[in-house]
Each structure stands twice: as C-alpha cells, then as structure tokens.
Amino acid sequence: MRILVTGFGKFPGVAVNTSELVVSRFASHAPAWPFDAMRFAVLPTRYAEAEVLMRELMGEVRPDRVLLLGVADTPSTARLERFALNIDDGASPDEGGELRKGVPILAGGPAAFATAVDLPRLLADLLEAGVRAEISNHAGTYVCNHVYYTALSEALAAGAGQVLFMHVPRLPEGGAEGHALVAEVARACGIVARALTRP
Fold first, then answer.
1. Would residue 144 show up in a list of annotated catalytic residues for this protein?
2. Which of 20, 95, 146, 167 is labelled catalytic?
3. Domain edges within the chain
4. Nearest to 40 by CA among 81, 68, 82
5. CB under 8 Å to 148, separation ≥6 — which residues?
6. Selected catalytic residue, list 81, 95, 154, 184
7. Mind listing the pLDDT tens digit for each residue in 69-84?
8. What is the domain class of 2-196 according to CATH?
C-alpha cells in the first residue's frame, strides 16, 4: 500500500500554512504507520508549479491512496471535499502573483471530478474519534482545487486508487493553540489514512 500525503506552503495572507506543519509532523511518525511506503511533499501554492509537481509525484510514487491537505477558513478540523471543479477563479493571486479568473484547469475536461472515497463513512469515523469534521461539496477555485482536480485526473487515467482533499483550519494567533491544532489535525490525518486503506 503506497500512500502519498501532500500539503502547501505559504501564500498571500497565510505566512505559515497549517497543512505544511501537519505534513512535517505526520512524516516524523511515518515509521509507525502500517503501510508499505509513504511519501510526503509540500507543494508551492502556485497554480503551474503545483500542477507539475503533483503530476510528477503521481507518476513517480504511483500511489494506491492520496491524501491532499490545504488550509481554509473552516471551523472544522477536517473538511472532506467531495468534488474538484475544472476552474481556476481565485479571489487573490497565488504565491507567485498569478491571478486566474475563470480559467479551465483542463481544456475540454469534465466540469468536475468526484472522489471515490466513502465520505459519510469517513465522517462517521472522525466524529466517533472526537474530531470536528464535516463534508464539503467542493474544494473552492484556488490552488487547492487545482491540485485536487489534477490528482483526480491523473488517478483516473492511471487506474489508481482513492484520492481525497481535506481542508484544515488556519493557525490561530496563540502559540499554544497553534500547537494543539497541528496535533489535532495530525491525529485526524492518521484516522483518514487508516480509513483509506480499508477494502
């Protein structure tokens, strides 16, 4: 079972990305996870560069499962994204200063891709474990969504396994609260990773 876990680096308005810290924490505990191989990566919050790196990772790792993490204004620890939309339409530029408005991610591609993950079952697992979680119908129209659409497209073309994008909250101002949030999100990632390996 090969699992790929990714997060994002900083971008305008977010100097420290929760998902990057969580990937680092999650990676430090990788030897304890009962999987054949785990690969971790932090993607630049730039449309073009993130897409290229995502495609390279999908081809190199050939993952059976993919867990993508990104940060958003959400009250939940885990926001499970059902769809990725074929559109880039950000309210602000990416980290490289590129602003995309109404640009298709894949010309002529499907309007949306849906994850094959059983989200209601996964949500139940998270809630039972005391994790604040919810299901969301799409991952927005910024770089997070761009990477999700790319990963789902690559997985479908390769006949690969399940892909899921999970949004996590921004870090609070307080240091102690920030450490607690990172720990809580990392715990949620462990629950999700185990759930993704179920038959």
1. yes
2. 167
3. 2-196
4. 68
5. 68, 81, 84, 113, 139, 163, 165
6. 81
7. 999 999 999 999 999 9
8. alpha beta
Tell me the two tokens of residue 55: 């495609």
Contacts of 57 (CB under 8 A, 6+ apart): 4, 6, 39, 41, 63
Digit-coded pLDDT (tens) for 158-193 = 776 799 999 999 987 656 678 888 889 999 988 998
Cα–Cα distance for residue pair 63/160, rounded to 1 Å: 7
What pLDDT shows up at residue 2?
A: 86
> Distances from the Cα of 140 to the Cαs of 14, 46, 50, in angstroms?
16, 15, 16
pTM of the model: 0.94
Catalytic pick among 20, 51, 144, 154: 144
Give the tokens for residue 61.
Answer: 């790792």
